[in-house]
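Form 7-S
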Amino acid sequence: MMTTPTLLKLTKRERAAIDSYLEDKAATTLPPPPPSRTSSKPSPPPNGDATRAALATSKSDALRAALPAFQHRAAILDTIDSHAVTILRGATGCGKSTQVPRLIVEALAARGAAHARVVVCEPRRLAATALATRVAEETGRPVGGLVGYSVRGEAKRTPATAVEYCTTGLVLRRLQEPGALAGVSHVVVDEVHERSADCDLLLLFLRRLEGAPKPKIVLMSATVDAAPLKDYFGGNAAVVDVPGRTFPVAVKFLEDAVRALPAFDVAIGGAGARAAPRPEASSLTPARAAAAAAAEAEEAPLIAALVARLSCEDGAILIFVPGVREIDSLCAALERQPKCVVVPLHGRLSVAEQARAFRAAPAGRTKVVVATDVAEASVTIPDCTNVIDCGLARSVVGEAWSARAARRVVTGRVSADAAKQRAGRAGRVRAGTCWRLWCAVEQDALEVARPPEMATLPLCGVALRAKSLFGGAVAPLLAACPAPPPLDRAAAAVRELVEMGALDEETEALTPLGAALAALPTDPAAGRALLAGAALGVGE
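Output:
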């Protein structure tokens, strides 16, 4: 029978060293706060006139006027004004991520409001930085002024920033401080359908807000089922729908791609040679990793041949692969094609490196962006007309019998919703094509949507963040989330936090170590190892 792995308990010497280290550091912030948290809480002077003037001098008024979100601004703003919570279902291409925060600030400024401050929560740092840059450009101001962003390790904002794009995780860490929402008029949660654990904790926090004034809450998505969210927030929640503005996207499957490449078809023995569905991708055990590498070796020549064919057309090519390893390998292969400018795009890149994906290619060359699922939603490669989708994504999951110890990186099929989002990247500026590298018969086997992270993610870190945010017993807190995990997994998370010294065994209160771990943007076990190393003088 399989036994549950447990953390090694701290020795008395290690516990004493960590406690002493935390006491010595009590006069300073632990860990050192990122730049986005070094600024004092915004209490800026009235900015209504400045906001109105800046927003009136947009460089792209004509493009903006064509966006459905702008065309439906009256309905959007009326719904937001009349309800505590607005669920905005905006179809792909409607402009919700760029326009709704700006529309809110414009409306408040037009009424003579002394100050407006909209915090927009994005699931990924790429979305936060790219959207802030785009909206700032539309207003004719540099990013970091009227429109700014804050992500882990980097921030561009001032006390007068009216629209601030942030990652959801960073907002959660801010909320651990009293008064973190002081002066915030609206909280916008974008891509709420992705249902990350951080997003669910944020929704729980927003639902539990008490006292006045409360910020208005706007939840946005292209694909979310609005009914459960409306029920979750109760009576004063409303739904507003905004149509999309996309061009037709022709969806082609693996057999179509092979038939479109006669030379490649002959090389592999005819169209039937690749007609069989691929085996299911699974966790990266050594054997499965070898199998995945073999599958990639087969797929890379097909992608290269397809890129060579498509590079003769106008427009950029966006390729979705599951991870950084695949990006590096495919970029190296594609750089041999002289017509192509190959650009990687993933979350580990700096903001400056990510910005390359949004620039036009030199004349006579085709931009090829090789990306993970960071390019799936919220951001637009403006000149993209062809998408090549490998149909895979990577995630971290935990076993049902363990809250933390059995973390696995899993490569699995994308959901049907994710595949639809990816295809939509090709139809933002004109008609395009999505090449899905799986057989048409496999499409119906895809899950409709990816499960909420609460159902799959190891719960140790989630439980610690919930405890730090709300206090009280962990299990009832997690049970109050929109997608609550099973009670036995919540209980297992508490036991492991007690074992690592983050929670008191009797009262379940945060220990000094637990408070320090909650402030670290990493897994609690990894954070504990870092703190133990620092306390014992390792690596200093």
